[in-house]
Amino acid sequence: MGVGKSQFTDEELQDYQDLTYFTKKEVLYAHQKFKSLAPEKVGHNKNVKLPMSKILQYPELRVNPFGDRICKVFSSSQDGDCTFEDFLDMMSVFSDAAPKAVKAEHAFRIFDFDGDDMLGIGDLRQVVDRLTGNKTLSEGDMQQLIQYLLEEADLDDDGALSFAEFEHIIEKSSDFSKTFRINL
Which of 107, 93, 106 is CA-nearest to residue 30? Predict the structure, then answer.
């Protein structure tokens, strides 16, 4: 049984291991998964950028209501297209080995639709809409739910959740790390 030659030098693999929560073997496995999304494009070009539509074909992103937001947060470009390094960073943060604080930081960015570093009413509304899917809430129920969220978590009563307030909620959630994950 022969071993195929890696597209990466030992130094590159070491750098990826140092910069992620993955072993060298897991980095190579992540590259196989990335390549499987568009073998015709990735081929031997390790610097190719795949369109978000290809990245969203990854099984766990395809069914995730925040798949597009995940791509945009981890993409090195505005359009959500991803290089292998973007994909590797994404998979690393969603791995079991990533610390809860790192996961919380990225979850906050995913839920911050308007990019103002706060989870305001508009952001919370979009989060709830995506989580409920086609079972949309009535306007009254939506307002009541958002009001309840803010009453519970908005410690400074400014009508929005800061990262510190969001992190406080995450700290109380025992299953956050288990649910904020994607299998490689």
Answer: 93
Exposed, middle or buried by CB within 10 Å (0-12, 13-18, 19+), for 16?
A: buried
DSSP state of 156: T
CA distance 61 to 71: 9
Instruction: Residue 84: count other Cβ atoms within 10 Å of its Cβ.
Output: 22
Q: How big, in percent rounded to 5, are the helix, strand and coil portions of the chain? A: 60, 5, 40
pLDDT (tens digit per residue) in 40-90: 888 777 789 999 999 999 999 999 999 999 999 999 998 999 999 999 999
Q: What is the largest CA-CA distance in the chain?
A: 63
CA distance 152 to 130: 21
**Joined tokens for residue 101:** 């604080």
